[in-house]
Amino acid sequence: MSTRAQQYPATVLRREQLSRHLVRLVLGGEGLAAFRSTGVPDEWVGLVVPGQFQSRYYTVRSWDGVEMVLDVVVHDTGLVTEWARGECVGDVVTVTEPKGSFSLPDGAGWLLLVGDLTALPAMARIRETVDVPTRIWAEVPDDMGDYLPPGAEVTWLPVPEHEGSALAATVEQIDWPEGEGYFWMAGESAQMRAIRKHLMRERRLPSDHYDVMGYWRSTAGRQPRAVDPGPIHRAGKAAGRTDAQIWDDYDSAREQA
After folding, report:
1. Which residues in the chain land under pLDDT 50?
2. Which end of the chain is less crowded, N or C, counting CB atoms within 10 A of the terminal residue's CB?
C-alpha cells in the first residue's frame, strides 16, 4: 500500500534577488520542525505556492535545521514565477519530503558537474559537500561568477541565442580524466536524453558512475497551456471542493478548451 508523501507548511521569511533569473527564498516556521534532510547533496523538495495546487521541484540549497534556502529560477511565465517575483515574504507554502539521487562511488577520483541555471543550486551544494577534484560546466544567462563555492575548475557557458541549451554538444567535447570518477548533470530534458545515450554508447560508463536528470522541458514547438489552473484552484477552494474535485474541474476545462 502506498502512503502519501509527508508535507510541511513553511513561511517565507526572506526573499533576495540573486540575479535577473534567480531568486533566493528563505523558508522557516514551526511547520518545518519535523523536516529531516536526506543528506544527499542534490536533494530536492516539491514546493506548492499560494494560488496553486501543483508542486514544482527545487533543490534544497541549504538546510540548517531551522531555515531552508531554495534558489528559484524565474521565467517569463510559470506556476511559481509570478508569485516569486512579487512580494511573497510572509506567505505560507507547502514543502514535500526531500529526495536525492547523487551517489558518488567508493574510490571515485574525480567529479564532473554539468548543468544549466536550474542545476546551479545543486552543483553549488555538491561542490560544498564532496571533496574530490571537481570540474564544472555551467550554462547560465547571467554573471554568476560568485555563486559557486571555490575549489573547482569552472567553465561558464553562454545560453544559446535561441534560448535552448547546448549542453549535449559540450559534454561530447569534454576531455575526460583518467581513472574512475562520477559524472552528474541536470538541465533540459531533451539534452539529458542525448547525454545518456552518449554516456552509454560512446563513453560506456557503468550506470552507477553517472546521474543525468531532466529538470525541465523546452517549450520550443509546444503549444501554450490552454487553461490556467490557478483560477480554477482558487475558485474550487473557495467553494470547499477537494483537490480531486478541483482536478476534475481542471480536466473538464481543458477538454472544453
Report:
1. 1-3, 221-224
2. N
Question: Does residue 140 contact residue 116 with C-beta atoms inside 8 Å?
Answer: yes
How wide is the angle at C-alpha 5 spanned by C-alphas 36 and 56, nearest 5°? 90
Please state whether beta strands 44-48 and 153-157 pair in parallel, antiparallel, or not at all (unpaired).
unpaired
For CA atoms 122, 165, 197, 112, the dihedral sign is negative
Task: Return the pLDDT at 1.
Answer: 41
Helices 243-256, 229-238: inter-axial angle, 10-degree rounding: 140
Q: C-alpha cell of 158?
A: 553562454
> 19 and 144 in contact (C-beta within 8 Å)?
yes
The predicted-structure confidence for 6-29, as pLDDT tens digits, reads as follows: 999 999 999 999 999 999 999 999
Kindly state the percentage of the chain with pLDDT values over 70: 89
Q: What is the pLDDT of residue 2?
A: 42
| Position 60, amino acid | V
Q: What's the pLDDT tens digit per position in 118-132? A: 999 999 999 999 999
What is the model's pTM?
0.82
